[in-house]
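Progress note, sequence design subtask.
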């Protein structure tokens, strides 16, 4: 099979993070600081990624700003002709650090907000004064010549603040707002009953987004991702397994997606142990679900199979116990009806207590 080069590398520099969002997509077993790879490892990987054809690097974590060498890594990626994006909570940044990152060539900053009010946001992230710091940092980004995206992760406990979140993102000068309902992997799966919105609340949110998209047309782009549990068609997770991007975990393992290690039996390679090109093109974990050869009915004969690649393997595993099953977000999957029923039940559970990482 001719394997096109990846467009993007997701560099999880660390799993350390001062916040504790109850929907964090990091694995339940976090990499320890001692397992993190040194600057020399990432520099050599970035150079290899550039040769392989990677066009963008998303520096993320945990909280990537917890790494002291972040500006050096950004500068190295820029010098290699790669577009750089920082996905951050913002709480460890200030003007001096932001100026340093801009000077290193950082092109784009994505800052997550946990709510529109201090009370909600600081409770969800379990970090006092985090919201105020985020707002200060976000306001500085456009003036330093970098693009700003605000990430708003929505769920039952902050959905009422959606109109205020959109107005806030606009007032911060964001070029783009990504409104994403929680997807239930990692910590989010553990907190599902406390986070799941009802179908009615979701419909109301859809209408709010449609109204504001119209209002802000030409001023701020709004992307919108609905929860899989209420969807009829699955998303092509990661743009298809081994098709467009890959993740490098803090310990240096190269993964097809951030939750791939939940799938039993997959064998992951560490960058540096084999050439990155070999890992991407013929590594066993990437071959496992690349393309359509692994599919069964109903995916194998479905006209959508090269569009969504059967949805998310990790969600199929979490919900059916079988990573080869059709993602239950698909209306053709046998377990599809159960997903929406489960969502409705959990939305009505009245459970509000959140389980945090620490
Ligand atoms: Fe996608 Fe498979 Fe559903 Fe077809 S049957 S829409 S390929 S998940
Ligand atoms: Fe692993 Fe979707 S998170 S395939």
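Output:
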């Amino acid at each position: 099979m001719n394997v096109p080069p990846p467009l993007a590398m997701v560099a999880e520099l660390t799993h350390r993070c001062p916040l504790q969002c109850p929907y964090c997509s990091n694995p339940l077993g976090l990499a320890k600081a001692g397992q993190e790879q040194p600057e020399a490892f990432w520099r050599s990987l970035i150079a290899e990624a550039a040769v392989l054809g990677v066009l963008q690097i998303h520096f993320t974590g945990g909280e990537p700003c917890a790494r002291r060498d972040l500006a050096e890594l950004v500068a190295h990626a820029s010098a290699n002709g790669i577009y750089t994006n920082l996905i951050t909570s913002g709480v460890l940044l200030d003007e001096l650090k932001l100026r340093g990152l801009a000077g290193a060539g950082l092109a784009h900053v994505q800052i997550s907000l946990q709510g529109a009010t201090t009370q909600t946001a600081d409770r969800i992230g379990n970090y006092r004064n985090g919201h105020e710091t985020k707002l200060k940092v976000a306001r500085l980004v456009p003036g330093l010549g970098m693009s700003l995206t605000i990430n708003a992760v929505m769920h039952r406990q902050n959905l009422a603040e959606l109109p205020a979140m959109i107005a806030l993102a606009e007032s911060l000068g964001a070029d783009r707002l990504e409104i994403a309902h929680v997807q239930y992997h990692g910590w989010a799966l553990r907190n599902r009953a406390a986070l799941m919105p009802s179908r009615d609340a979701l419909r109301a949110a859809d209408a709010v987004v449609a109204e504001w998209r119209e209002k802000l047309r030409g001023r701020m782009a709004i992307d919108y991702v609905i929860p899989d549990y209420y969807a009829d068609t699955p998303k092509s997770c990661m743009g298809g397994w081994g098709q467009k991007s890959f993740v490098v975990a803090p310990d240096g393992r190269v993964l097809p997606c951030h939750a791939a290690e939940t799938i039993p039996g997959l064998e992951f390679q560490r960058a540096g142990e084999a050439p990155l090109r070999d890992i991407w093109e013929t590594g066993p974990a990437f071959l496992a679900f690349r393309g359509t050869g692994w599919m069964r009915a109903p995916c194998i004969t479905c006209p959508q199979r090269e569009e969504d690649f059967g949805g998310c393997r990790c969600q199929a595993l979490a919900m059916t116990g079988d990573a080869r099953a059709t993602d239950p977000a698909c209306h053709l999957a046998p377990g599809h009806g159960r997903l929406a029923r489960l969502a409705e039940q959990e939305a009505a559970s009245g459970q509000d207590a959140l389980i945090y990482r620490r």
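The pocket of iron/sulfur cluster (ligand 1) is lined by residues 233-234, 298-299, 302, 304-305, 308, 310-311, 326-327, 330, 332 (CB under 6 Å). Work on this subtask will continue into the next period as scheduled.
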